[in-house]
DNA sequence: CTGCATCCTTAATGATACTG
DNA sequence: CAGTATCATTAAGGATGCAG
């Protein structure tokens, strides 16, 4: 009765595709941004610094396909499209938020390690 | 006296380089593998399914440079090289382990979402 | 405004052969 | 065994123009 046992360490395990999607900087930043509130496409592009429209669109499509993000388009002119995390997507807010904070809180330590390594 | 405030959402923030390193599937799998115990290069290559020797070497170098992994080479023939997480690297075991488990535990839900999306 | 299509450039990964 | 070096391939990303 137990469901199949997935193992991301196995190259052929389908769950690997899911790890590849979430262990990704763009995914992390988009989920972090959407964790606060639903956002329009343009807002998202502003918040996720350095992302191009193309990459944002593609990543959002992938996240929508995986059921992590819900897209709502309003029939207005000019168009307005809003994105928000689904229930499933919200279960990623904590783990990915933790990654973002780790990068910020430990960056100085990382920088020192890099300097030490490069000095050799 | 507060340290500079890093923000990974800003394209120009140096901490972004750190996020890019840890929000990565190879990094995640290597850290997960090394969370259990120190491993030889060959053991690591076996555990991280599908990784090539080249990519494993490069990723380990990057992790070593960032102070997340320590490398110890023994002057033996044939050579033996062991890798282990540093104290800093161990602080990533929980967050990256959580990502790996998320991928495994939620994969079926993701798969259903993909099927539904592709059916439209 | 959103986002698709196209073309182009760059980065990531793979395959193979070779060395201490 | 654990790399390094090289070459070939593939994937990711950026720029631009256009459409609804």
Task: Write up what this structure looks like.
The structure is a homodimer of 120-residue chains. With 120 residues, chain A is mainly alpha-helical. Chain A has a single domain, classed as Winged helix-like DNA-binding domain superfamily/Winged helix DNA-binding domain (Arc Repressor Mutant, subunit A). The first copy, chain A, is built from 7 helices and 3 strands. A 3-stranded antiparallel sheet of chain A has the order 1-3-2. In chain A, strand 2 and strand 3 form a beta hairpin. In chain A, helix 2 packs across helix 6. In chain A, 34% of the residues are buried. Chains A and B meet through helix 1, helix 2, helix 6 and helix 7 of A and helix 1, helix 2, helix 6 and helix 7 of B. Chain A binds a DNA duplex (20 and 20 nucleotides) through helix 4.
Strand segment count of chain A: 3
Lateral strand order in the biggest sheet of chain A: 1-3-2
Which band does the percent of strand residues of chain A land in?
Answer: 5-15%
What is the overall silhouette of chain A?
globular
The main pleated sheet of chain A reads as: 3 strands, antiparallel
> Structural class per helix/strand content of chain A?
mainly alpha
Here the CATH topology of chain A equals Arc Repressor Mutant, subunit A
The greatest inter-chain interface is formed by: A-B, 57 and 59 residues
